[in-house]
Every structure is written in C-alpha cells, then in structure tokens.
Design brief:
This protein has about 220 residues and is mostly helical. It contains 13 helices and no strands. It has a single domain, classed as Hypothetical protein af1432.
Length: about 220
C-alpha cells in the first residue's frame, strides 16, 4: 500500500509537499541523549536509544521463542520494527518516569495527549511519500489489527527490559532498584505468555552474574 501511495505522488507534488531537508532522522538519532530512570540512582546510565535497541532484541527473542518453542504464528520482523520505534516520541517529550505518569488518571490522560501531539509533530517531518510507512510506527492510533497483535510482544519485551535493568543494578550492589524489581517481576512471572516465562527461566539469571562467571 505504501508503494502504491508513492507511485501516485507526482514529482511536482513531492517537491511541493516535502521539505528540501527532513529533520526526522536527525530527531530520532537524538534518542541517545534522552536519559531513562531519571528519578533513580543508577550505576550505569541508560539512554532511550539503548532501551529501544534492547527492546527490539528482546522482542526478537520472545517472538522466536513463541514460534520455535510454542508453535505460535508470529510476524517477527514487524514486531521488531515496532519495537525499534516504540518510544520514538520521547525525543520530544523526554522519558516520563512511570510513577509520575501513572500518579493519577488526569496526569496519565494529559501525558497521552502530549505523546499524541509529539507523534503528530514527528510524523509531520516525514516526507509525504513515506508517511504511510512511518505513521503506524510513530502514532499507535494508526495501527492495524495485525500490528496490534504484534505489539503484544513489544509490550512484554518493554517490561522485560525494565526487569533486567533492575536485576543488573541490584547485582552491582545498588539497592535503589529493589522495590522496582519486585513490582515488575511478579506480573512477569504470572504472565499468560509462556515465552516470557521461558525467557525468565532460561536467560534472566545470567544478568545477575559477573563477566568471569558467564565466561566460565
């Protein structure tokens, strides 16, 4: 469909509607400057760009487990693509800590509106010939049913990455993340997604070990 849209756009329309230079990817690259876990004392700081990579990696892992171990039909490439862009609006909004965002319904509603405006601004930077491709990656209200199905693995990977962050901080002796670990771990272990429990059983404990221990 995106290809058809591009074919329907004439050269004159592209020149009229698209800026000479788009700032979209320059903005997205600045995710590396957005710091996560800003209310917590960190032994190792993490950027939104690093988090996006980790979530994409974990999404691939969960999809692979779902497909190869549990025989599910999974669109792994699409899920990983959605994961890469899942926090892209934070380049404008910054990372809003979960305790702040979910403090009360009014704050959460306001944050959702701000995120929607940020998505609209980012999408406006995308050349018109590419907007149909990037719209569902930036503005989740544009997701198809297939994308909504794929998004379940992205959301699980997002939670899993937060858990692994807590595990590694605690392994480094930072008790700042003790409560967060308990709060995140309980729903993960009770997840209805067997691939999440499989990952916890087979891979998560390694994140508590030192380099020497995992290379023995």
């Amino acid at each position: 469909m995106a290809r058809d849209l591009a074919q329907d756009v004439t050269d004159d329309e592209v020149e009229r509607d698209d800026p000479a230079a788009s700032h979209f990817f320059a903005y997205v690259y600045r995710l590396r400057l957005i710091e996560r876990w800003s209310l917590m004392r960190n032994t190792l700081r993490e950027s939104a760009a690093e988090h996006s990579f980790h979530v994409a990696l974990l999404t691939h892992a969960l999809c692979s487990i779902a497909r190869e171990v549990f025989g599910k039909e999974v669109d792994t490439p699409r899920a990983v693509t959605l994961a890469l862009f899942h926090d892209v609006t934070e380049v404008i909004t910054g990372d809003i800590p979960t305790p702040v965002k979910h403090h009360n319904p009014a704050i959460l509603a306001s944050m959702r509106e701000i995120e929607a405006l940020a998505a609209e601004r980012l999408l406006g930077m995308v050349p018109v010939a590419l907007r149909e491709t990037y719209a569902p990656l930036i503005a989740h209200d544009a997701l198809s049913e297939q994308d909504l199905a794929a998004l379940q693995w992205v959301k699980a990977a997002d939670k899993l990455d937060a858990y692994l962050k807590c595990v590694t901080e605690l392994a480094a002796g930072n008790r700042e993340f003790a409560v967060a670990r308990r709060q995140i771990e309980e729903p993960l272990r009770a997840s209805p997604m067997p691939e999440v429990r499989y990952f916890l059983e087979h891979f998560a404990s390694s994140f508590e070990k030192t380099l020497d221990e995992i290379t023995e």
